[in-house]
Amino acid sequence: MHMEPANQTHISEFFLMGLAYVPELQPLIFNVFLLMYLITIVGNLLIILAVSIDSHLHTPMYFFLCNLSFTDICTSTTSVPKLLLNIQAHDQSITYIGCISQVYSMLTFCGVESCLLTVMAYDRYVAICQPLRYTIIMNPFLCILLVLLSLIISTINALLHTLLVLQLFFCTENDIPNFFCELGQITKLACSDTFINIIFIYLATIVFSVIPLSGIIFSYFQIVSSILKIPSVGGRHKAFSTCGSHLSVVSLFYGTGLGVYMSSSVSNSSSSNVITSMMYSVVPQMLNPFIYSLRSKEIKGALRKIIVGIIYFL
Q1: Full-prediction pTM beyond 0.70?
Q2: Comparing C-alpha atoms, which of 190, 242, 192, 197 is closest to residue 220?
Q3: Nearest to residue 280, comparing CAs of 309, 247, 249, 308?
Q4: Mean pLDDT of the chain
Q5: I need a labelling partner for 112 at 20 to 30 A (CA). Which of 7, 24, 137, 234 fits?
Q6: Cα–Cα distance between 73 and 78 in angstroms, integer?
Q7: Interhelix angle for 60-89 vs 270-281, to 10°?
Q8: What pLDDT shows up at residue 12?
Q9: Cβ-contact 297, 287 below 8 angstroms
Q10: Which SS3 state, helix, strand or coil, does residue 17 take?
C-alpha cells in the first residue's frame, strides 16, 4: 500500500536493538566489546608499525597486509565505539545521519577488505607461479594502483547504496535488530519500494563476494599446482607457509560472511543478527593480526624488536 511521503520523511533517529537493554548484562557486554576493540586496534597498529620500521618487510605482500590492517581498524571503529557509547549512556538511539554514515563506512571498508584479500591472492600467485618475473610484475606502481582501485571501487559502491537508501521513506518502525546500521536491515525497515535497492545489493554481493572468492580459488588452484611440482619437500613447505596466513584470513572473512548469509536466511531474530554481524564486522578484524604474527617469522621478528625497544625505552 502506498503511503504519503508526508508521513514518511520525519524519522530523525533509529534505535539499535541488537543488544536489548538488560541492566545485569550491560557491564559484561561493554567489557567484552571494549576488550575486542582494544585488541583489534593494538594488534593491527603493531602490524602497521612492524611493516613500516622493518626494511625487510618492505615488500608487496606486507604492503598489502599493512593496508589490510588499517582497513580492519576502520571497520571496527565504524560500529564498536558507538555501541560502547550507547551502553554507557543507556541510550540505544542513533541519528538518521549517523546511521547513514555507518552504512556508508561499513560498505566501504568491507569492500576494500574483500578487494585486498583478492589482490593478496594475486600477489601470492605471481610470487609462486612466476617467481622470476615477480619484481617486474609486482612493482611499486602496480601495488599502489591496486590499493587505490580497491578503495575507489568500494567507495563508489558504498556511495551508490547510500544514495539509494537516502531515497527511501520510513514510517513509524525505526528499531534495527542489530548493534549497528546494516544495509539489509535498513532496507527492510523502509515502507517505500525497495526493489532497486535489493537489485543493487545482489549485484554488490556478486562483485564483492562471488567474483573475488572465485579469483582467490582460481589463484590458489594454480599455486597448489605449481607447489606440487617443486621437487624438494623443504621447498614445498616454504611455499605453502607463505600462503598459510592469507588462506587463514580468507577462510575467516568469507567463512563468516557465508555464515551471515545462511543465518539471515534461516532466522531473523535480534540475537542471530548480533552474532552473525559480529562474525564479519568485529571478529575477523581482531584475529587477523594474530594469524599473521603467529604464522610469519618476519612479522614475529619485527614485533620482537618493537617490544624490546619499548621495554628498553621504559
Answers
A1: yes
A2: 242
A3: 249
A4: 85
A5: 137
A6: 9
A7: 150
A8: 84
A9: no
A10: coil
SS3 243: helix
Average pLDDT over residues 270-274: 61
94: enclosing H helix or E strand: strand 93-95
Is residue 43 within 8 Å of residue 290, measured between CB atoms?
A: yes
Residue 140 grid cell? 611499486
Each as own residue / partner, the long-range contacts of residues 239-247 (CB below 8 Å, 24 or more positions apart, any chain) are 239/128, 241/295, 242/61, 242/124, 242/127, 242/128, 243/124, 243/128, 244/295, 245/291, 245/292, 245/295, 245/296, 246/117, 246/120, 246/121, 246/124, 247/220
List the one residue out of 68, 153, 70, 61 whose CA is nearest residue 116. Answer: 68
DSSP class per residue in 24-50: TTHHHHHHHHHHHHHHHHHHHHHHHHH
Find the mean pLDDT for residues 2-6.
43
Segment 185-198, tens digit of pLDDT: 899 899 889 999 99
The label of the residue with cell 535480534 reads: 270
- Total Cβ atoms within 10 A of residue 176: 23
